[in-house]
Design a protein that fits this description.
mainly beta, Jelly Rolls, 9-stranded antiparallel sheet, 8-stranded antiparallel sheet, 0% helix
Amino acid sequence: MLGRVLVLIVFLFLAIPALVAAHPAAQPAPPTRLFIPHISRDLCGDFFDDFSAATGWFTGERDGLLAELADGEYRLLVTQPGHIWMVGAPDCARHPTRAAVDARWVGRPGNFYGLLFAIDGRLDQSYLLAVNSDARVWLVFRITPDSMATVIEPTANDAIRPGNATNRLAVAPAGGRVLLSVNDTVVGQLPDPRPGAAVGVGLVAASHITHVPADARFDNFAHQGVGGGAWRVAGGAWRVEEGQ
């Protein structure tokens, strides 16, 4: 297992250009990577979490973040403007892997929430499927200790429910690719960034540079090994077919 829960904070100035075009572009401050020595249980089977009880996710306060279980959801409350917080799931890295989570905002929506995937064992690289529910766009970042690069630019899709509605984000392997899904609709894909390697996943919440707080809630988290199944695209949605 990963052994530690990863918490990563960076300053976000221009994640979604259309939303901040009225503000002059600024140079991002260098990201600071924080590790919280929080050891979870040694869980290596399929991991499902409805957040009705503590299962090992980081909870507490760190530099503008409050993480807690709240009314059967996992809450990431970001209270500093222009911050992104990323929290690793408290289970094992695995390959191949699929992951999914329900995400929503309480109060005024923040910049984006997201599903972190392909976290390598050294915590040197990960990818992020991010959704901005106000603009109804999704995008993908590649994250390293000293950079956060946009791999897929913000892309509109009607599958994204607006505002405070719940959106289910998911990633799954398919023949050397990673399928990216919102509400059971495949919105995009990219080449598998870590073919053959066991990887971890996590959750993300980001605040705007213009207002706080950003109060993200997560539920019905799933992280599974694909095993003998194969992911197939059918009618714009994706499903697992066992024994293929």
